[in-house]
Design goal:
single chain; 100 residues; alpha+beta; three-stranded antiparallel beta sheet; 3 strands; elongated
């Protein structure tokens, strides 16, 4: 299956899913192969987040606020983490790990 992926002033690029490579056709020329327009396997599907998944905004919180948040969510923050950015990153990693 060959599908168009990008068109420029110089021509059109096609993805060849069998050969796993890009094919280039110069502008003004027709491709010498069959082109599949909008194949079902490549259609964009919008995935909406689950309504039962809580969303947390940790930006702008102080280190103290982040530690309180972590405690409320049963996350143990190591004592050597002092900066809010470091604590925020650690909490986010733990939340992702818990979700999996």
């Amino acid at each position: 299956m060959k599908v168009p992926i990008r068109t420029t002033a110089n021509g059109t690029e096609y993805w060849d899913s069998e050969a796993k490579k890009v094919l280039f056709v110069p502008a003004g020329m027709r491709p010498s192969f069959e082109v599949t327009e909008k194949p079902e396997s490549m259609l964009y599907v919008e995935v909406k987040p689950s309504t039962d998944t809580p969303v947390f905004n940790l930006e702008g919180m102080t280190a103290t606020q982040l530690r309180e948040f972590a405690e409320e969510n049963n996350i143990e923050v190591p004592g050597n983490l002092k900066k809010p950015e470091t604590i925020r990153k650690y909490i986010e990693e733990q939340l992702v790990a818990d979700a999996e």
